[in-house]
Amino acid sequence: MTSTEAKITNPSKGFETLEDEVEVDELPLEGKLPAWLSGSLVRNGPAKFEVGEQRMRHWFDGLAMLHRFSFTGGRVSYASRYLQSRSYAEARRQGKIAYSEFATDPCRVLFSRVQSLFSPEAIPDNANINVAELGERMIAMTETAIPVEFDRETLAAAKAPLAAPGHLSTAHPHFDTSESKGGKQGVMLNYAVRLGPLSSYRFFSVDPATLETKVINSWPVAQPAYIHSFGMTERWLVLAEYPFVVNPARSILAGRPYIENYRWRPERGTRFFLMDRENGELRRGFKTEACFAFHHVNAFERDEEVVVDLCAFDDPRLIEDFYLDRLRNGKPVAKGKLRRYRLNLADRSVSSETLSEANIELPRINYECSNTRPYEHVWGVGIGETGFFDHLVKIELSGGEPTFWSEAGRFPGEPVFVANPGGKAEDDGVLLSVVLDAEAGDSFLLVLNASDLTELARARAPHHIPFGFHGQFSAIQPNGGSAR
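RESULT FIELD:
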């Protein structure tokens, strides 16, 4: 293989630190944007993997950077800024990694480890996974209990507006968009786990106006599982508990980074818990074979069953695959499949099936019209011959053949669906994906027709954008105006 070929097919540029924080009024644009596309896509992800002489060990550890692509009048502007979290500020001040991360732990003193578990001031807030709109606020989120608010216009961070009622939470909240809960800017629903001698799982709500946090229900657990997201139907919140579990007391004394305290116990199987969204009633006893997943896709009720769709893996090997030395050396990562679980409410039995042979991760749906309901379309990234996410995929749940987008040497990120405000079909809209161009050494924003994955436009960024995780599209412009 020539050096040119190696450069084209190697995604390692996506794991290089980006030092630049920039603001560009108009990006070079190829193609044409839909006239109705107006608003902003805000992406989140790690962008700094070294602090002084120290190196982050895992993709999930890098210090967070926000990237905003704004659309108006057929043009695209761009801004990037490091999330000014406490974790970032202390790293800059001290010239070293100041807080424990997912798989990087600079804290070796026992007292400091205990403090970091039980003191809110010591909990890391490197919110590098996702962003969410909470009423008029924009917040960056990770798996610790403290999100970080930031300004739409400047991307500057403010003090955390709230904290989850526990030590760990998810960066994938759901929103109650019923009229009784405030419609589109409704109550935020999320999960947290409280660690200690008596650990507990809990679901909670956050009022977007008052930021009042209310625990809906809580139940004890001896060895909490690693849980990255959860599902929601019209009636139920759905917690999938995979057998990747931790002993909180032992983890304090172990001297290992956070995720390395978890152990795979497949003999436990996977358990599902259903909690009634209105009264907190808990139903348990749904058990099936061991599996692992980061992401729920959707869930809904049908007759006497609850249907739960996951990007499922046979085990948590994907976490190991995401260590930076492996990614930079081109080690292939595990492939997940879209798997459906049916939970029978009458006898608590669980059945499952694979919905497509296409592998998929970082899944997105038309959330506004499809979440909690039967649906037909899922978009995501897939792993091809490069061993990393090198194509986009659309899966038709009715059984049709999947549709793909790919280009040699290009590595797309999560496709964010934006619905056509005048459309009626579930897949009438566009997909927005930040793509690493390994050959050119930079990145571009790709705009695809969501129905058939044909390209509409691409806007080239002034530098490479490190591989991120999730983003959200907001119809509110950075200057506070509404696009619709």
